[in-house]
What does this fold into?
Amino acid sequence: MTNDKKLNIAIIGGATSGWMAAAWLKKIHPNTNITVVESPQVPKIGVGESVTVHVTEFLRVLELDEDDVMFATGAVYKYGNDFINWVHGKGENELFTFSFNKNKQHLHSSPYSGAVWDSSLEVTENDTRLTDYWLDLKQQGIINKTFDKSFNGLMDFCHKSNPRAPFIDNTPYLPPTDLIYAYHINAEKFGDYIRDKSALPNGVNHILGHVSQVVKSDAQSIEKVVLDTGEEVYADFFLDCTGFHRVLMKEFSDNIKWQEYPHCPANRSMVCQVEYNDPKTEMVNATKSIAMNKGWVFDIDVYNRRGTGYVYSNEFVSDDEVYDEFTKKIITGKAKFEPKIIAWDKKSMKNPGFGNVCAIGMTVGFVEPMEANMLGVILNTVWTFTNLLSASEDKKTIDWDTYNELVGHTFSDVADFISVHYTLTQRTDTEFWNEMQSWGRKYNHKELLLDKYNDYKNTINGAAQGLSFFPDYMWIQLADAWGIDISQWPNKPITNDERELAKLHFDYVSNHMKIVSKQFPSYYEFLKEHRFQGLTPNEWHDKMYG
Ligand SMILES: Cc1cc2nc3c(=O)[nH]c(=O)nc-3n(C[C@H](O)[C@H](O)[C@H](O)COP(=O)(O)OP(=O)(O)OC[C@H]3O[C@@H](n4cnc5c(N)ncnc54)[C@H](O)[C@@H]3O)c2cc1C
It folds into this structure.
């Protein structure tokens, strides 16, 4: 890394995205000089608590101790998203747990082979995927269970009345299939933790100061930023991690082109933090995504409280109406503050990188919080920038066309996937859901599901290259869960032997997990004993917040 010895990178914004970007860049390019500028007068957005396996991978590469991360940030394990009331609005639920598709070899080896992420990357364009075998069994009427109940069996770890921990006796014993987890983290604490445990100890500089002026060197580049303290910060690259403030990017507003997302309805959320009445019975290991009359609610359990928000559009429902439904049905414990509204424009930049300026994560754009996408998207943008910096010969120029194209793929995939959750509903109980169904017909969303499922960009391999965000298995999972007719979806030719093998495989997965899950300890008891030093959520809160 001798080439980038003198490279200076200034990161503007010191919340979750700024510190994640700084820590990652310093890890991959240790000889760069990285400075994070954080305004003492602009607070963090304070939401963003349900994360995806991108964050699990981030923590692993940074070599951060999971127990310490969890204790310091009040984080708990998350196995997926629990979609409640989305299809009929009658109390039904569909659980989307983390999983990966695999290739044919996996079927021929024992399920005990424990093939997870790495073998998923081996799925090539013409492979018959594990999901293709599953589709065949479904089409033949051999499998009647829903995707999640038969594909990876994690349902058995997520019973609402008795959720299970991912470890036994604190040993890293995982069930033989993919028990892949992420976390619910505390948004107030996570960025600071990455700052204190990774970025600063590895040599990232930290300046507390409010950027009051951005001085350009030309129409596409920045020479320096000037802080209200009078201090000036010069750099070779400037990364905008100020989220919706877009402190750097707004100076280039004439230059920026936007992609709008008219097929995504939401443009605001009413958010609140709520105390548990009884954490032992309330805390669960999946993010609850609950469809409401005119939008949906996220409900995220961290160790000491719930973080929740009603996501909606002010074109369909008034804030007062939302407040009424939100406070009556969702805020069932003591609210930690009066619900507040965060609004956004559902769009993203088509050109988030140019000259020496780069937008990261939510600065690029935002569709909405569905499927807890944004911390994963932040990492995708950081990883893409870092990879392009590694590929740059002079370490002074970045291939922005590639950056813009890959980030564009990520955002459009996120928008499409979010949209189909709404538009393929079968709910007809409010005008909002009727309208969503008409959008589904207008945008041909049933066809979109099949196209996305079969698009090579959406294999794990494609997703790992930044060509998409939500991998193929998630599209077929949604199709099945939402009751879309997949009986005529074209499929790969499958022999009788393979069909038998596939049946054995999926029977094994679901039956085995049903029995095995019983041996795993209760989720809450395990967290308390092994991750929170025996402290109850209230005791932990008092210790950490004083
Ligand atoms: C309702 C809602 C729910 C969400 N839920 C999820 C979720 O469940 N999962 C998920 O992954 N993501 C979620 N997100 C997204 C997530 O909240 C953000 O991606 C995440 O918090 C990162 O924010 P950030 O660091 O980019 O910005 P912010 O937290 O807004 O931080 C901005 C930073 O910029 C600094 N700053 C601002 N102006 C200046 C200036 N002039 N000079 C210097 N510094 C400045 C501030 O001091 C601050 O440090 C959600 C978003 C919303 C709106």
